[in-house]
């Protein structure tokens, strides 16, 4: 038990996390490529035309995975930021910092694809509906997190300030998720619910899940690559970084 | 050929479907490139620092 926990703690040091992340990136990249390729094939060749929305509904296969990732990445980011705040571990704060741009990108994509779906189905690109507004607030939280960290010179202070912002912002996640239940929204309710039967056709459900898994693997790959950059930037005065650079030449 | 143009037509939803998938694909292709560029920039900067340090010791 104790030896196992020491093994895990080892990776909270940038010097050991850096090569580990480097070894993991190709695996997650490969998985992402395969899953997204299968997901795209299913999106256009396997999933049947919807009886109500025709071909337009196919937007779901990027919209729902992007929206899930936007919320999931935020929770993970706040979690790592919180761990960094409590245990004062540098790598956790760096992981949180690396997650933010990818989370912001998926939030933007959820809003963008939602808009492109809303126009033909609801007749409008945007409404100030609870679901849409809370998702927009999520985008501002990501941007605020990045801007706050960038504006503070001392990285350790930036980590702490960012962590507090990220943790306070977590309150928005259940608001997004339950907004379609709590308020009367134009946005439809959840089709996929835990513990209940899904209201979606089986192929549509599987296609959405495969795409979501592909987006997830993509996020891990890109975040691990980014955290490696952040480690090098912030640990540039460490001996192991100097040796790494020497070896590479 | 007819099937292909029908496919791109998307039952009249071409703008919305390709507008969604296209922008998603674009951003998910650009993000890894940006990360790669950032990595190159860090590496170059660190290599410069190492060279400067080596020459100052001499």
Key descriptive features of the protein:
heterodimer; A: 249 residues; mainly alpha; 78% helix; globular; B: 58 residues; 2 helices; 90% helix; rod-shaped
Walkthrough of the structure:
The complex is a heterodimer of chains A (249) and B (58). Chain A is mostly helical and 249 residues long. Chain A has one domain (23-48, 57-189, 198-248). Helices cover 78% and strands 0% of the residues of chain A. Chain A is built from nine helices and no strands. Chain A has helices spanning 2-10, 14-46, 60-87, 90-122, 130-151, 155-169, 172-182, 202-234, 239-248. In chain A, helix 3 runs antiparallel to helix 4 (90-122), helix 4 runs antiparallel to helix 8 and helix 5 packs antiparallel against helix 7. The longest helix of chain A is centred in the first third of the chain and has 33 residues, at 14-46. Chain B is mainly alpha-helical and 58 residues long. Chain B has one domain. Chain B is 90% helix and 0% strand. Chain B is built from two helices and no strands. The longest helix of chain B has 44 residues, at 14-57. At the A-B interface, helix 3, helix 4, helix 8 and helix 9 of A face helix 2 of B.
């Amino acid at each position: 038990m104790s030896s196992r926990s020491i093994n895990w703690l080892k990776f909270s040091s940038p010097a050991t996390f850096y090569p580990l992340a480097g070894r993991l990136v190709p695996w997650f990249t490969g998985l992402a490529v395969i899953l997204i390729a299968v997901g795209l094939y299913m999106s256009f060749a396997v999933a049947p035309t919807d009886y109500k929305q025709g071909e337009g509904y196919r937007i779901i296969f990027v919209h729902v995975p992007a929206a899930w990732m936007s919320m999931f990445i935020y929770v993970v980011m706040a979690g790592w930021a919180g761990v960094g705040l409590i245990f004062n571990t540098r790598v956790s704060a760096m992981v949180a910092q690396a997650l933010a741009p990818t989370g912001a990108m998926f939030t933007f994509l959820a809003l963008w694809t939602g808009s492109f779906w809303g126009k033909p189905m609801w007749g409008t690109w945007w409404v100030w509906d609870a679901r849409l507004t809370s998702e927009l607030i999520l985008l501002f939280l990501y941007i605020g997190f990045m801007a706050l960290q960038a504006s503070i010179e001392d990285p350790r202070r930036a980590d702490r300030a960012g962590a507090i912002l990220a943790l306070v912002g977590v309150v928005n996640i259940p608001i997004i998720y339950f907004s379609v239940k709590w308020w009367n929204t134009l946005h439809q309710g959840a089709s996929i619910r835990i513990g209940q039967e899904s209201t979606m056709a089986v192929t549509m459900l599987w296609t959405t899940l495969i795409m979501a898994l592909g987006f997830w693997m993509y996020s891990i790959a890109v975040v691990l690559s980014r955290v490696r950059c952040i480690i090098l930037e912030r640990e540039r005065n460490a001996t192991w970084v100097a040796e790494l650079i020497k070896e590479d030449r | 050929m007819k099937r292909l143009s029908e496919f791109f037509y998307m039952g009249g939803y071409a703008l919305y479907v390709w507008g969604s998938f296209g922008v998603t694909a674009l951003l998910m292709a650009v993000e890894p490139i940006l990360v790669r560029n950032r990595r190159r920039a860090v590496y170059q900067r660190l290599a410069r620092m190492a060279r400067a340090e080596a020459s100052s010791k001499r």
